[in-house]
């Protein structure tokens, strides 16, 4: 065929092959080392502390503090720089650490936005940027990290609406977006990830009602934290379909109506925080079935009475009836 002899096509094929080879070999322990040296260069020299003389080419990158290597050929699989007092921005080079399974920069002063290149970290299982000063729109590409199990962005300044769907991260077990500046409302599709066990969206500016079918997709839900937002409407009965539910924290919102008596079906529940809402009516007697309850707080509502012989003394009280 005449087309196959076209020099252009041959060139194109060569270019494609070249780029495949390049992609396959671009990432190595050497490129991991360059990525960390780039990260170091983006950290304010006055706050490099232990990194200053430890992260140097004098020793193998696998011996650097905070670094764990693994696999064959050896690559960086974990980077944990938590609580090191580091002040800086995160360079795009971090996206070259393509074998990373754990990345924690928790409790430092990283600022600016997350570079899009973080979306290249396809092996990440744990991402913890908690308690830094990161800002920008909530990064939508996070959902391409399909292996992610733990996502912690707590205590930053992420802005914008709550993501509309998490359903691409089918292995996600824990998501903590608390203490940011997220707003908007939540749809049930956000929770359409049946592996989720812990959801923390507390202390943002999220409003709207909780979807009635909220919990239908969450057979494994153990902890739900939504305190300190602007949710209103009723507490959905479906929450108590979650048989594993251990913590329910809905304090400091605008929930109204009564506490569903289905509450008593959650026999694993051990913490129940409903203070500072506008709930009224009776505390259902079925609460007596919640045999694991250890801490409750119903204060600052309009709950008028207690239905039966449920004894206050059994619980750590925040009760103000
Ligand atoms: C860097 O820190 C690690 C962990 O504390 C230590 O094992 C290593 O010897 C240090 N390397 C240098 C060059 O100081
Ligand atoms: C990171 O390191 C800190 C301090 O060494 C440790 O307390 C923490 O558990 C580590 N985090 C992870 C996810 O391994
Ligand atoms: C955060 O890091 C600082 C060091 O920069 C440390 O003193 C403090 O204890 C850490 N806080 C937590 C909660 O780990
Ligand atoms: C690493 O990342 C940077 C920035 O994204 C890029 O310029 C560089 O070519 C990448 N590759 C290597 C091998 O460092
Ligand atoms: C950075 O974040 C910490 C909490 O993670 C906060 O206490 C501090 O005020 C923030 N600093 C700036 C400059 O925003
Ligand atoms: C989810 O995955 C599908 C197929 O892999 C992809 O087309 C879509 O863009 C992804 N959505 C997000 C939000 O990443
Ligand atoms: C939930 O996700 C599944 C696939 O994971 C999809 O088929 C279904 O339409 C989604 N439902 C909602 C309400 O988003
Ligand atoms: C709670 O249990 C009662 C009695 O078995 C049942 O009628 C009700 O549908 C259950 N509610 C939920 C939310 O599971
Ligand atoms: C409690 O009910 C009274 C009378 O209906 C109302 O005035 C008051 O605002 C309510 N308080 C709360 C915290 O909802
Ligand atoms: C109960 O909640 C109220 C209002 O949020 C708070 O002031 C009080 O300290 C809490 N009580 C306990 C025992 O935690």
Ligands (ions, cofactors included):
2-acetamido-2-deoxy-beta-D-glucopyranose
> Can you give the helix content as a percent range?
10-25%
What's the overall geometry? elongated
* CATH architecture title of the largest domain: Alpha-Beta Horseshoe
- CATH topology of the largest domain: the name is Leucine-rich repeat, LRR (right-handed beta-alpha superhelix)
The CATH homologous superfamily name of the largest domain equals Ribonuclease Inhibitor
CATH class call of the largest domain = Alpha Beta
* CA gyration radius, whole angstroms: 25 Å
Number of domains: 2
- DSSP, total strands: 21
Structural class per helix/strand content? alpha/beta
Mean pLDDT reading: 87
> Segments where pLDDT lies below 50 for 5+ residues?
1-5, 9-24, 307-321
Fraction of residues in β-strands: 25-35%
Strand order of the largest sheet: 1-2-4-6-8-10-12-14-16-18-20
Whole-Å distance between the termini?
Answer: 87 Å
Order of helices and strands: HHHEEEEEEEEEEEEEEEEEEEEE
Number of helical runs?
Answer: 3
The main β sheet shows up as: 11 strands, mixed
Organism: Corchorus olitorius
Membrane topology: Single-pass type I membrane protein
Protein name: Leucine-rich repeat-containing N-terminal plant-type domain-containing protein
Subcellular location: Cell envelope; Membrane
Short note summarizing the structure:
This protein is of the alpha/beta class and 321 residues long.
